[in-house]
Fold this sequence. Notes:
Blueprint: H1 2-31, H2 37-58, H3 64-69, H4 76-103, H5 108-132, H6 137-144, H7 148-180, H8 185-200, H9 204-235, H10 240-258, H11 273-287, H12 291-294, H13 303-321, H14 324-338, H15 349-355, E1 360-362, E2 376-378, H16 383-390, H17 395-433, H18 439-461, H19 468-482, H20 484-492, H21 498-522, H22 535-552, H23 558-568
Antiparallel strand pairs: 1-2
Amino acid sequence: MFSQIDRLGRIWGMYTLAFAVFVVLLWVAESAGIIGQRGISWTFVILTIGIYATIGIMSRTGNLDEYYVAGRTVPGIFNGMATASDWMSAASYISLAGTLYVLGQEGLSYTVGWTGGYVLLALFLAPYIRKLGAYTIPDFVGVRYPGSFPRVVAVIAAIIVSGTYLIAQVSGVGIIMSRFLGLDFRIACFVGLLGILVCSMLGGMKAVTWTQVAQYIILIVAFILPTVFVAQKITGVPFPQLMYGQALTDVAATEAALGITKGYLTPFNDWTPAQFLALIICLMCGTAGLPHVIVRFYTTPNVRETRFSVGWALLFIGLMYITIPAYAAFARWEVLHNVVGQAINSLPGWVEAWTKTGLLTINDLNGNGLVEFAEFGLNSDLVVLAMPEIAGLPYVVAGLVAAGGLAAALSTADGLLMVVATAISHDIYFKLINKSASDRTRLTISRVMLVTVAAIAAWVASLRLSIIADIVAWAFSLAAASFFPVLVLGIFWKRINTAGAITGMAAGLLTTLGYIIWSSVTGNSIGGILPNAAGIFGMPINFLLTIGISLATAPPKAEIQALVDRLRFPKHLHDAATPATGD
């Protein structure tokens, strides 16, 4: 294992160095006037997607174990890196700092909920699910709760959760392509679709894993570097995490001077305390129930590496999450100082470019010809991508940020597509329809599903249903209400049976989905709870029905109760798990 890690470490170290040299050379070329903005944008897009495509082609496989779970050979540190890339997505990279910029303190519910969810995942799910050695969450459900119906319900839930999440990723790709390549947003969604498919079509989870490692390196560099530059420019100290407090102090003082009453640091300007807490709970439990995140822990060699990979994932996620609040604060500072008060007819070129995307509006409501803060409509999905230009940094930094956003969206989209395709080809077709299907047939069905689901997601994304963070939060609420209760109870309580699990999953999913649709269409809410926290209604219903019906009906068979004992109390933590599902 150590020789493998050393060899992979050298390879990825050289890759990181080569990418850094490329960015420096591009910056030199821009400074010398050799390449312009459009050339920089195309260079970043072509190079990064070319890297991902190359990895996808080199990782092509016809082996089912490699296609579904990367051969269960991924070391913990690299699985942690891939998991971080898979999980952070366009919401964390593109939308989260923008959400903090817009909402202020309420936006911290996203950072607390998403990072706290990994604690739940590490404690309650990851090691035990890896012990079973399944391919998918529906696989786990089908073994723990015997019968065809639980697997079907789990597949439907996985498709709804992952499909919702996928739409947000394609939206992120569309925003980046439309701004930096000058494409119409709807066309950009389908162009981005090709970048998603090229990473996963041939190599499945094996290709997705190593592509996600490459994407994490790009996205973390692309996110932290501009924040460092802006911190140095504003405070003279190139450590944004340490200068975050100074930025907040300046923002509060500037807002007070401008007469902004609902300031950045004033809590609950936009949300109620109930909504704040409800969203944290939904995001935490949703993290622990996301199918595309949990499947990552099937790719490690054993339970020990699974535990290590969760720890590494927390570290790699933490590098970005301690930077995101600083990014938002510095972006707010830049807007207050470099945009507000400026003459509308003398604003720089980036304003016009972003206005064309529909994410930026300026309305001179008082007719004085100057930009007032209330007149500057900055969509939360724009903040991260536009901040380098707002701060006056070299355009190569803006291109780098766009490349990072593209990496974040593509990495998560690939993982989500694998979940949906595998659920249909493995859990439905092979497990329930044709158990004698050949490997080739199953792989063909999986690849057809990849293309079909991706095309549907691109079409829905082109409709622009909501901002990225909200769509992703819907997915987390749906995961919390459908999977989290039956997974946790199924691992820790032998008495939970099939009837309880089916009823709980279905009721939790339908309640949450119904609330999202009802609240989004009517604009109404219960107790101030927004659609992004709808899981706060579905999850308790799932728990109550699962427990109540299980207690009111016959207990599981002895072999199922023995399975729970094996999951909960493994004799040898370091031993590789023996797949319980068979193939």
